[in-house]
Task: inverse folding
DNA sequence: TTATCTGCAAACGCTTTGCATCGGA
DNA sequence: TCCGATGCAAAGCGTTTGCAGATAA
């Protein structure tokens, strides 16, 4: 299963891992590759499905372990969009999230400032490392669908869940 | 177990429930009372422990059900401070959260604007209902402890976890 | 009277843990 | 060689569901 990555891609990913002081292992290369390639936020389940579709089978626990090490070394980040699931995304540019109350989709919102601590809390003495904003409401897609009035709940569910899909 | 609340408190809580078009039931009165009285953010586990300490035993599922109806009617709100647990808090004033990476405590940060949609996302066409900010970093307490250098990890854990406690 | 909520148990989904084995540095 | 990561299974945690019986409106 290590043969999937073209040599130069493998080089690049290995370099990233090494620069984060992580050992270069096959599962790490595979998962980092997947996360960087697809962008957006993905559940661990998505990652597993994606790998499976490419014929790669990794144990859940390994995927969790790998993601944890990637996160703690800053190569990828997790988005907090509510309890119960962990959404992983590449840490390319700092951004925030909009969660649609109707269809459940999670939409990336670019950060106007672009830096991780883009806002300051009123909390003297604290060391702020990052500020993440979560907006909740109804996404443009659902607003439009509602205006047209032609779509029932089932249709919407299918149409507007860009996140739930596979990577 | 319905005898715990003084009559006038019971009246007040019942009025709140009715104004939210919720039926007035004993578990709802008890749980709403607890959440309003203590303030701050509490896990469902905290709520259960608190009730237990007062000699009130409610099934988990009922607590979850009650909290869900209170949340969906706007009487209380849930804070998203990371995956895996649901923090409940009274919906008195809109505020944000600071999560300490060292001790895990969650600190309320007052919202400068005070309204739920205090920030606008760059997402044309969306209906924004609320914006919640999560800061991550090291809380003032841990910063101070680190500066003094006198506290080891265990001490800190005990000292600075105002959230994990009981209500 | 009726729709709604409670109370109990059991299931569920996601994540973590334990441990023997394997593999990169 | 040796520390750290993998792979597997199984447990853990917080939350949800299903349904019979109770209860507010």
Result:
């Amino acid at each position: 299963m290590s043969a999937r990555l073209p040599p130069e891609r493998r080089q690049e990913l290995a370099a990233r891992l090494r620069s984060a002081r992580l050992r270069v292992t096959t599962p790490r290369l595979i998962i980092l590759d997947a996360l960087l390639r697809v962008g957006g936020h993905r559940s661990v389940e998505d990652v597993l499905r994606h790998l499976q579709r490419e014929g790669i089978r990794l144990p859940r626990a390994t995927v969790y372990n790998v993601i944890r090490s990637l996160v703690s070394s800053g190569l990828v980040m997790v988005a907090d969009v509510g309890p119960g699931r962990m959404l992983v995304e590449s840490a390319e540019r700092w951004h925030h999230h909009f969660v649609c109350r109707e269809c459940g989709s999670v939409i990336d919102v670019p950060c106007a400032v672009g830096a991780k601590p883009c806002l300051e809390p009123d909390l003297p003495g604290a060391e702020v490392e990052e500020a993440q904003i979560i907006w909740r409401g109804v996404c443009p897609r659902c607003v439009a669908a509602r205006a047209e009035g032609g779509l029932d709940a089932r249709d919407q569910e299918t149409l507007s869940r860009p996140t739930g899909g596979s990577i």
